[in-house]
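Morning!

This is the sequence you dropped in the shared folder:
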Amino acid sequence: MKIKIYLRIIGLSILFGLQSCEDFVDIDSPNFQMVTEDVYSKEKTTIAAIQGIYNQLYVANFSTYGVSLLGAMSGDILLARTDTYLPFDRHELFSINTTDAAFNQNIWSSAYNVIYMVNRALEGLENANINGDLRNDLRGQVLFIRAFTYFYLTNFYGDVPLLLTSDYNTNATAPRNPTEEVWLQIESDLDEAALLLNKQTEYKDGERYYVNRSVVEAFRARVYLYREDWSNAESFSSKAIDRTDLYDLEANPEDVFRANSKEAIWQIAPDGVNNFVPREANHFVLLVNGTTITGNTAIADDFVNSIDHMDKRRLWVGEANTETEHAYFTGKYWFDNDGEIQQYSTAIRLAEQYLIRAEARTMQNKLAEAISDLDQIRARAGIDLIADSNPDISKQALQDTIMTARKRELFAEWGHHWLDLKRTGKVNPEFSNNPTWQDTDALYPIPGEERLKNPFLTQNDGYGN
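The structure's back. Tokens below.
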């Protein structure tokens, strides 16, 4: 008990020390020092150092609201209600000296700050004075976090610096690596993490914000999907689906996003904080203040109207009304916690695994099996099953139906729809009628502030020199 309290104190001191400066974290001159030789001289401080990385995920912009909010706007799920996010709504981003550039900078810098912390931890673990099993466990966890972070960096920016060391001189002038090299590193990190976490098949203390082997395998399924390795995408998504002792679809959609729900495979939350709400709530929820609706974004009406009124997923859509105004917002996040934790940020969940397997099976012409997977999601939503209404559906029609299911099931979560449009080659046709859309808008600009500091960083096409 004393050790657990001690670890939480260390982890929380790191967390709250970072919250005040998380908007502009600079990887080449970090404003804190988590890792020293002393930290890795004892088991309890080594564990606390790794906990600091988990806590950083809770405050980092990319892993809280950044990817989910901006990705949903880029995918036209969310619309801007104020000028603050309008450039993301219109696909008119700039690399420097604008509000959207600051948001873009926050995603980039906070992601690289997590990578910096992981690299320091990996270096510290090399000679840590701890037993071998614990070393393997902790190394596997942080390798997963690095892979997870690079997944979003390369999907949002394309070619990015592949930093595998904490050395300042190396990182300060690192050029961008080709996207393929980044993908290969993601796969390598996940493969090693799975091997190292071979004995970690349950959740520490029952909390689903810790990484275990199942978390790695589920995310590996997503990576295989993006890489169009259909056989492995099917195989790895099946691993989570088959863990019926750990995972199941929540019967009630309102329970899906609760802390440690049985559908959650991996969630993000700070250890030891007894009263908090996910930071997404501050950016997705609309509030009615007298005759005014306050909030920067709203769910697009046409998206909400595309969801059948009998679909139980309408419970994930909130409404804000005044006498003169009406707007929809994301009901997947909420403020009310009744003094106790009710919700964590859900990063990977079982429903996605069914949809991954359905798509992978479709691409392998296993249509009956794919229909069965898709119908698991439709059954929970309370809508007609494909097996009953259209059992002879064509392969192309089934593909389209799965993409629609992903959009409705995973909206406002981790940029899924935006990334789906890009990975399936549908992003340009989707926005072809948008007068401000250009093909180069599929990638965000490399932040101008980063390029001022590092002259070796090139810019994505469409954003000038």
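Headline: Residues 1-35 have pLDDT under 50 and may be disordered.

More detail when I'm at my desk.
O.
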